[in-house]
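Milestone 3.1: sequence recovery, worked example.
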C-alpha cells in the first residue's frame, strides 16, 4: 500500500510495540490516523512501524497514558473491591481454621466500604496472611 506522508509518530503503549501516527495513503488522499505495529497482519503496517521506530518520520514521542474519568475510576475501585472480597471469601467459611479470622474480618470490612462507597484514588488495606491452626 502506497503512502505519501507520515507525521506525528507517538508510542501507542508503554511497551513500545505500536506507534500511532498520521498517514496520507495514496488511495485515500487525505491524512488519517493509523496505528502501526511490528506484528501487523499487513506488510505496510509492519513497514511503517519499522521505519517510524527507526526515526525516519521524526522522533517517536513518548507514550501518554489515557486519563481516566471520574466515573471510570469509581468503577475500577468498585471492581477491585469486589475482586478482593471474592478472593478472601474462603476465610469466612465456618470450617476454615485460621487463628486470625478477626484480621480478615477487619480487612474485608475496609474493602467492603470501598465497594459500597467507591473513591477515585482508593487506599487499599493490607491483606492479612492466613495463620492456619
Amino acid at each position: 500500500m502506497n503512502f505519501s506522508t507520515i507525521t506525528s509518530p507517538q508510542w501507542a503503549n508503554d511497551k513500545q510495540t505500536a506507534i500511532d501516527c498520521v498517514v496520507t495513503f495514496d488511495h485515500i488522499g487525505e491524512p488519517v490516523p493509523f496505528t502501526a505495529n511490528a506484528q501487523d497482519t499487513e506488510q505496510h503496517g509492519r513497514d511503517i512501524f519499522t521505519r517510524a521506530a527507526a526515526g525516519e518520520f521524526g522522533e517517536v514521542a513518548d507514550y501518554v497514558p489515557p486519563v481516566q474519568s471520574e466515573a471510570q475510576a469509581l468503577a475500577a475501585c468498585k471492581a477491585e473491591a469486589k475482586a478482593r472480597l471474592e478472593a478472601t471469601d474462603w476465610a469466612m467459611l465456618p470450617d476454615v481454621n485460621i487463628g486470625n479470622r478477626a484480621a480478615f474480618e477487619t480487612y474485608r470490612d475496609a474493602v467492603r466500604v470501598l465497594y459500597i462507597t467507591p473513591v477515585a484514588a482508593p487506599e487499599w488495606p493490607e491483606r492479612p496472611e492466613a495463620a492456619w491452626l
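The chain has two domains: 3-53, 66-133. The chain has three helices and three strands.
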